[in-house]
Write a structure and sequence with these properties.
It is a single chain. With about 300 residues, the chain is mostly helical. Helices cover about 75% and strands about 5% of the residues. The chain has helices spanning about 25-50, 60-85, 95-125, 130-135, 140-165, 180-185, 195-225, 230-260, 270-290, 295-310, and strands at about 10-15, 90-95, 175. It has a 3-stranded mixed β-sheet. Helix 3 packs antiparallel against helix 5 (about 140-165). The protein is globular, with a radius of gyration of 21 Å. Residues about 1-5 have low confidence and may be disordered.
């Protein structure tokens, strides 16, 4: 863009998805349908949990926050991507790009912390069932959610402030469909050493440590399940954890695929495709998993539909 510093940068150009122009219409319809399923599916989870008193438990309290996070997380990038595909406009303002980075990072971190809180809830429910009500009190649940929001917001704010101090001179083309932090750092003409060190540090706190906590929790759950002599007890424990484990596998699987198996320097297509997985497909699959694999959710939905039918 030929600007001298970041204050004069007015916009970036998003190159979008690596698809052919003649395929734009098909992919637009596909991604729009997926986005609508994401929003409506997660709204349905929020509605069912709100209307059914049997779901007013810590597990579904965390699930309601996860559903809300999935809606907003997907909404940070998908509407802009769809608008660019439909209008063939690639531009995003500097302020809009920085804002997108903040909300994307904040909600992504929040997802990680909420999944960890849900894993701890399952650990207490299965490994310490007699003390579950005492341990998973309402105050603890609120505290876990508040701490998750605070840590996620703080890490995203620091990332954003460090990004805002960088200069962007010359090329303003982003080979992505949203303002990805790593892609912006590659585009910057400033020294990004501090940003990269902060990414590694925060990554340990908001991704690696929560994932380790989830693994430890399910390790303890697995050891407890193996000591359960009753087949019925074993089935109940597995059905309780199955939905959560599926969501954890989706969330961390895409992150591991992106950051532990990076693409070559001359190709960004794989990173863009993986980004579609965790920005759109994973939030869409979460409500489907909790609706199809979770007996409590299916029973609650059936009860609500039955009451509506008879009324």
């Amino acid at each position: 863009m030929g600007r001298e510093n970041q204050s004069s940068v007015s916009e970036f150009l998003l190159l979008g998805l690596p698809i052919r122009p003649e395929q734009q219409g098909v992919f637009f319809a596909l991604f729009l349908g997926m986005y609508l399923i994401t929003v409506l599916g997660n709204l349905l989870i929020l509605l069912v949990i709100r209307l059914d008193p049997h779901l007013h438990t810590p597990m579904y309290f965390f699930l309601s926050h996860l559903a809300f996070t999935d809606i907003t997380f997907s909404s940070v990038t998908t509407p802009k991507m769809l608008m660019n595909m439909q209008t063939q406009s690639q531009s995003i303002s500097y302020a809009g790009c920085i804002s997108q980075v903040y909300f994307f990072l904040m909600l992504g971190c929040l997802d990680s912390f909420l999944l960890t809180s849900m894993a701890y809830d399952r650990y207490v429910a299965i490994c310490h069932p007699l003390h579950y009500i005492t341990i998973m009190s309402q105050s603890l649940c609120f505290l876990l959610v508040i701490v998750s929001w605070v840590l996620s917001s703080a890490s995203a704010i620091l990332h954003t402030l460090l990004l805002a101090r960088l200069s962007f001179c010359g090329d303003n083309l982003l080979p992505h469909f949203f303002c990805d932090l790593a892609t912006l750092l590659e585009l910057s003409t400033s020294d990004t050493t501090v940003n990269e060190l902060f990414i590694l540090t925060v990554g340990v706190v908001v991704i690696t440590l929560p994932f380790a906590c989830i693994l430890v929790s399910y390790g303890c759950i697995g050891a407890t399940i193996l000591r359960v002599p009753s087949t019925k007890g074993l089935y109940k424990a597995l059905s309780t954890c199955g939905s959560h484990l599926s969501v954890v596998a989706l969330y961390y699987g895409t992150i591991i695929g992106l950051y532990f198996f990076p693409s070559s320097n001359n190709s960004n297509d794989k990173d863009v495709i993986v980004a579609i997985l965790y920005t759109l497909i994973t939030p869409m699959l979460n409500p489907l998993i909790y609706s199809l694999r979770n007996q409590d959710m299916k029973g609650a939905l059936g009860n609500i539909l039955s009451r509506g039918t008879f009324s």
